[in-house]
Design brief:
A 4-stranded parallel sheet has the order 3-2-1-7, sandwiched between helices. The chain has a 3-stranded antiparallel sheet with strand order 4-5-6, with no helix packed on it. It contains 14 helices and 7 strands. It has 2 domains: 17-125 and 161-249, Rossmann fold (3-Layer(aba) Sandwich), CATH 3.40.50.620; 266-317. It is globular. The protein is of the alpha/beta class.
Length: 324
Amino acid sequence: MLARTAQPVGPFTADRLRLDPEAEVARIVAAVRRQVGQLKRRGAVLGLSGGIDSSVTVALMARAFGPERVLGIFMPERDSEDESLTLGRRVAETFGVPTVLEDIGPALAALGCYRRRDEAIRRLVPDYGDGWACKVVIRNEGFNVSYLVVQSPDGVQQTLRMPVDVYLAVVAATNMKQRTRKLIEYTHADRLNFVVAGTPNRLEYDQGFFVKNGDGAADIKPIAHLYKSQVYDLAAHLGVPEDIRRRPPTTDTWSLAQTQEEFYFSVSWRLMDICMLGLDEGAPAEAVAEAAGLTREQVLHVWKDIETKRRTTRYLHEAPLLVA
């Protein structure tokens, strides 16, 4: 887990999230050059999703090693948004990195990803099948409860609370997507003697918003210390295309459009940044509430959710346990 920051001097404000983009880029570039050298590798591969995090990471890798020693990988499947590939290609062209396209849909079908997911959903919706779409959302009912949203071919949606066994089966099947993508990334990394660069920001890394041995697996994680707003600051400084910077963060995992907020985080990333920073700095809830435009009670709720996720996702951060 990321270390908590020391309590600073002075009143708490959202300005504490500001950084010097050029100095931070230089610091990250120097660090990853040193890390990759220590690992005796030549460059970096990463998956390109058309999102802000992978776009900033590929820009940093291109600065660190030169575009020719970076490989971007597009890994669409049948539930991917078309926009993800379009924007991924745009960012690769912007920073001049070579790319490969690996359609993982056939592999996922062969592994039973879609079949396993659909069979689990049919425990709740017997008619679910071809032409239907789905996603999972979280609702707070005093505690977080996961719901399944399905849409029939004629556009009618249903929202259903999932029993634990259905939830676990749906998520387990869906996690095959992230793990298959990581298999592809390491295949190309081995071929080129490169590292795999992970793309989580601080919110995702801290809160366990990743799949173990899936998108959580990497040799280096260059932006895992950066709050989401800081990632956007670097994106503007590095020249990430504006349409990518305007795109709402999405999981791009489900066949129905889904934001990260409705799937995982209790508030928007802008508010999460301020609340998490305030919690880590030990700032008074009242000061954080003023900075975020929330009530004290809302801040306390977000803090409770942050601490709960830190506790319940600790397993995802653990290395394999060895017999001493």
